[in-house]
Amino acid sequence: MSKRISPPRLLLALAAALLCAGVSAASAQEQRAQNTRFANLASAFAPRHLADGRVTTAPTGYVRFCADHNHDCEAAGTGLGVMKLDTQRTAELERINRTVNDAVQPETDLDHYGETERWAYPDDSRGDCEDYVLEKRRRLINLGWPSSVLLITVVRDREGDGHAVLTVMTDKGDLILDNQETDIRAWKDTGYRYVKRQSQVDPSTWVSLGETRVPPVVGTGR
């Protein structure tokens, strides 16, 4: 025989159900806000990997670069989710970061090319932040690293200016190769606000990372 529920108890049950639904919605909203905070702030409690957001527009400088270097904007190597950092891979990462930073002389696109923004390989040993990133990415791919773990990333630096770095997705977390820093750092330890980066699936596709103020120009010098 079914058990009857009195009207007062029925009302209490409905109220409890509605409350649980509200808590679930609030929890989902809080999680989205938390992801945005993680994307914007360096935190000791942030996850090792920076979560991708929605598909967004690629930087105009990158679009132009791909028009001139179509092959370099295609997926290369095995599509790994993360690279295992053994002794060899760690040494390669540190060597490439150091040698490119030492080899390239910082120069703004305006001084270099007479243009506000232009992405290019620093073959003449001059360039700004995105040029360092392109060169590091190219050298690592030539060493056998897959493009899926080497993601060009746009950030706002500590002064709020547009800046480009290379995010390397590893089993130790997302690491940042930066021409403004000698050491390779975890993404959460840079103090940067993360705007967008390449998708792991398709290098020509870009995804947002939480910071909504997209800088009009990526590189302003170094």
Question: What is the topology?
Answer:
Elements: H1 7-40, E1 55-56, H2 60-68, H3 87-103, E2 105-106, H4 109-113, E3 126-127, H5 129-142, E4 150-156, E5 162-170, E6 173-177, E7 185-186, E8 193-198, E9 206-208
Parallel strand pairs: 2-3
Antiparallel strand pairs: 1-9, 4-5, 4-8, 5-6, 6-7, 8-9
Helix pairs in contact: 3-5
Written description of the protein model:
By secondary structure, the chain is of the alpha+beta class. The protein has helices at about 5-40, 60-70, 85-105, 110-115, 130-140, and strands at about 55, 105, 125, 150-155, 160-170, 175, 185, 195-200, 205-210. The strands form 2 sheets. The chain has a 7-stranded antiparallel beta sheet, with helices on one face. Helix 3 (about 85-105) packs antiparallel against helix 5. The radius of gyration is 22 Å and the shape is globular.
